[in-house]
Design brief:
The protein is mainly α. The protein is 69% helix and 6% strand.
Amino acid sequence: MKIFFIVLAAILALTAILVPLFLLFFTQWPPDYAWLPAVRDVSIIYSTMFMCVGAILFIVMTALIAFIAFAIRDHIVPALEKVDDTAKTVRGTATFVSESVVAPIIKAAGAAAGARAMVQTLMRRNPPTPPRVSGGTVIRATDVERKDEPRRVTYQPSDKEE
């Protein structure tokens, strides 16, 4: 199909070039400069033909643009509406899964973590010691005591010391 249009364009271009040359060189002109009105008449006819062809091409192009616009309206817009409906369905499904499946699991995990923290708090032997201040240095116990390990204490200098 592409080759057809290339050949058609080449034929039209050759015709546009060769017709005026043929009319200029192979027409019998009178000897007394009467050929100038004849050339004028040929050029008027030739330009009129080009204007007619241009008008026909303009009409064809307008019809093609209208056809494309209607095709877009009839085919593309419904497809985009289907995509929008699908996106809404996916959004609804994600909300349902979040509310029905994930939220109860998060609540159960939070309750289990709270129960574990409560049991750990109740099972401590010694209550936590408040920080001690010794010579301007705050002493804090950072690790939890374990039954099988000795108590480790980390010393951190206070902000007042340099």
